[in-house]
């Protein structure tokens, strides 16, 4: 069937607005809302026995994989290596006997990741792919595949497929945690409950569109933009910067908030907006103090947070965009949405070809 734009100006805008439905459909696939349990199909490996996991992907899918690494290590206490496929395939890393890998891809056709897949299988690793296209090469050649239920994604820059990848990886992390007896039934219930609330929160975030447009007007004037986050929000800071570069052509960098003092702080002045992803939780105070250091050097802090009254951020942030209270586990899924929306609005203001940015392809099938 031919996919249209409906009443939207761009496919990307339409796809951004599909977040609540796509997240709902994907989560329903892998968790039971009645029992609050994760329900995974038969996997090609036993998470209790694997000594280590490799995650390989490209672009935004790699950043989803990076969040997956944080979740799986934290909830399942299983060591994970996450790599971009173009590095992984030539790095020649030692792979453990009985090891396994997770490949993440929207298209399931990306050449570097297909090469990683073949290499992994030759090295005796069991490969599970998280893909959006069921009939793709990756789905076919893997030992098992979990589908993201995002539907066709036309905009070159990934949006809904990215958050759907996060949703699947979150379910996997919980499932592994339970299998490895690192999570109690109570923990599992609390985490799945948080995931079940994600589609509703996603809809609430899309209603902040006007606020994000106002922020976009500021960002569109900048030459450089810095995105900061910590923990599982660090990959989302990278995603925010990647998305902005891809479609608005503004130079942006994503950084781990605590690492800013080792370099990017030298760039900070009134001209550089600092987009901070700062959910309440164990790392909130740490990120807030990094931001205060940036503000003290004239940095213009634009913060996304769910902290009550923005907490200490209210003292120095130029702009605060209030996020729903979702808990820190689900935060990466939710904070991905406003950074994608921000990039979208900046690109529209810049008049770029949002759905077909220059030099980029939806699926990179050559090395
Ligand atoms: C291209 C797209 C990105 C995507 C990446 C990986 O660069 O523009 O949006 O994240 O490829 O694609 P895949 O299909 O493997 O997820």
UniProtKB/TrEMBL annotation:
It is an enzyme of class 2 (transferase). Its EC number is 2.6.1.16. It catalyses: D-fructose 6-phosphate + L-glutamine = D-glucosamine 6-phosphate + L-glutamate. GO terms for molecular function: glutamine-fructose-6-phosphate transaminase (isomerizing) activity. The keyword Magnesium does not apply. It is found in: Cytoplasm. This is Glutamine--fructose-6-phosphate aminotransferase [isomerizing]. It comes from Belnapia mucosa. The gene is glmS.
